[in-house]
Amino acid sequence: MAGLDPTSLSSPDDCRTHHLYLRCRVDFERRSLRGTVALTVRAERDLLRCLVLDTKDLTIHNVTADRQEAKFTLGERQSYKGSPLEITLPFELRKGQDAIIEISFETSPRSSALQWFSPEQTSGKRHPFLFSQCQANHCRSLLPCQDTPSVKLTYYAEISVPSELVALMSANRDGDLPDPEDCTRKIYRFYQNVPIPSYLIALVVGALVSRELGPRSLVWAEEELVEKSAYEFAQTEAMLKIAEDLAGPYVWGQYDLLVLPPSFPYGGMENPCLTFVTPTLLAGDRSLSSVIAHEISHSWTGNLVTNKTWEHFWLNEGHTVYLERRIGGRLFGEQFRHFQALGGWRELQNSINTFGSTNPLTHLIPSLKDVDPDVAYSSVPYEKGFALLFYLEQLLGGPDVFIEFLKAYIQQFAYKSIVTEDWKNFLYSYFTYKTDILDTVDWNAWFNTPGMPPVKPTYDMTLANACIDLSQRWIKATENDLGSFNSADLKDFSSHQVIEFLALLLLADPLPVSHVRKMREAYNFNAFNNSEIRFRWLRLCLQAEWEDAIPLALQMATKQGRLKFTRPLFKDLYKFEKSRDQAVAAFHQHQASMHPVTAMLVAKDLGIGGQTA
Ligand code: BES
Ligand code: ZN
Questions:
Q1: Has 295 been annotated as catalytic?
Q2: How confident is the model at residue 2, as a pLDDT?
Q3: Which residues of the chain have pLDDT under 50?
Q4: What is the pLDDT of residue 609?
Q5: Helix (H, G, I), strand (E, B) or coil at 394
Q6: How many Cβ atoms from other residues are within 10 Å of residue 125's Cβ?
Q7: Please, what are the domains in the chain?
């Protein structure tokens, strides 16, 4: 059935949560959150007596409905989906009636939504740290809820933490006060008055400080990184203004950034009012700021207009990549936008090569029945989704025409959760006079077939040609030609072009060791600290089976935990016979201090069973 969420065990057809009130205590000794959550639910049908919530690794102590004791049972665990919490109401609800369901609960130290750090694992070494990552379906291991993006709710929260620490959430700050129950603690309060899906609930606790980035933006980090972060993300307000011009008013109030410890599994996460980012963006030259443009863009596509289920994830990510690249186009020119777009096509090719061109997970709309969204995660929804929108832009009259459609789409579906059919129907109704053109699109091939898209959009090649030419020179070079390479080859390259050059080489057959040895000498790549460059360079060396790269690759795979880097590095190390045992040993050595989702996925990649996030 369209719109039914296969990854949630809750029952949004029976009732829907409109508001959530969380009160809890963050306990670093027990590594748990303990408290109560009060859900305001509204019946969607008559004679409602029973409802089901999602939970995962939670202990449930007590449930009340409108302050009366309610019976509950925690069902059997269904792998990554967790355990259904079935609640029987002590009364009956009629359609449209509200009830407040209050649940007292405690999280597990193994909660897949949380990573706990001892003081030694932080930059400052003096205080513990905690962060959450709920997308795609980990909110259920933070608190009991309807953990499906088809349900949107506002929230209020009161979080008790040790006084020397700061708590932040995906919400506006509402001050702090001494904890009346414990004089060593403070309570931080938050409100999110825009309805959001559960996956956007987020919490961080640590020794955090902030610097101002703009009139509505602070950057938060541990003291050691805050200055560098303020420099790196100085374009934030400029990007917000461009995004508002492209997509409409920014409705969330504050737009802050938070720089997490290196194990944060993503480049960025669009938590409302407080984007979470990896410290691997701190290149020192602002060159990785497209991730910020991306997360800013989610303030419209994803956070206002939300995919109803994870099968329609491309609606979130494809549109967001489209807006991200429009922001890049405004800042750095249309040629740059086309260069990024072509890089995306190449990235899509990469993913489809990895998955195999008949793999059903390469559908734009994959079936996720019994598939963990974390396992299905890839560039496909991002780049196949972007390619479709870029193709439509060209088909329907260009960037100016298409951005007006996008604006109207956002206005039409803001505060709602939708499926691809809703998007397509709106597209046809918006372009009423161009339905003949729209009918030339092979929708079924785009949506429901594996592999590369049925058509390739047109790309301006100005900035890409230098990358293609240089990569071809290396691919074609014999041993005798190696003398012709030197640092002047990269003289006019931006760091984006260096990244693209390496990415093109990674798509080709492995180079001989003599070539990568010469490349290190000519271009001094070992000295690059830009994470995107270093990552591709080390992969290139491993694929060439150059032993010298093993310690460097092991280091990068374990010293940071961004899935985009850590998984391919571990995979390449595992594939190379000379580093295989070291890869497995390194995983076992670091497993306990890895993010739970990263540990689960790397274990899978290395063929090590038994781990579940
Ligand atoms: N929302 C995603 C991150 C995410 C997706 C977390 C699915 C968990 C499940 C975020 O907006 C994102 O796309 N991040 C990218 C940034 C890139 C495309 C610029 C990343 O982390 O690499
Ligand atoms: Zn995204």
A1: yes
A2: 47
A3: 1-2
A4: 81
A5: helix
A6: 12
A7: 15-205 (2.60.40.1730), 211-448 (1.10.390.10), 465-605 (1.25.40.320)
The continuous run of DSSP H or E covering 345 comes out as helix 334-355
Sequential DSSP letters for 111-170? -TTEEEE-GGGSSSSSS-EEEE--TTTTGGGTS-B--STT--EEEEEEEEEETTSEEEES
How far is residue 298 from each of residues 172, 247, 311, 473, measured CA to CA in Å?
A: 17, 10, 18, 39
Ligand 1 touching residue 564 (CB < 6 A)? yes
Give per-residue pLDDT as tens, 294-350.
999 999 999 999 999 999 999 999 999 999 999 999 999 999 999 999 999 999 999
Strand partners, 71: 88
pLDDT at res. 311: 98
Q: In the structure encoding, which two tokens stand for residue 348, read together?
A: 């899509």
Name 453's Cβ contacts closer than 8 Å, sequence gap at least 6. 348, 384, 387, 388, 391, 445, 446
Instruction: Establish whether residue 422 lines the binding site of ligand 1, counting it when its CB lies within 6 angstroms of any ligand atom.
Output: no
Q: Tokens 């290395």 sit at which residue? A: 606
Neighbour count for residue 439 (Cβ, 10 Å): 9
Q: Does residue 322 line the site of ligand 1, with CB under 6 A?
A: no
Top mutation candidate among 137, 266, 277, 303 for ligand 1, by most atoms within 8 Å of CB? 266
**How many whole angstroms from 24 Cα to the centroid of ligand 1?**
28
What is the predicted pLDDT for the residue at 602? Answer: 98
**What CA dihedral angle connects 411, 417, 421 and 426, to 10 degrees?**
-10
Owner of token pair 């760091």: 495
Cα–Cα distances in angstroms (integers) from residue 48 to residues 20, 142, 439, in the given order: 20, 26, 44
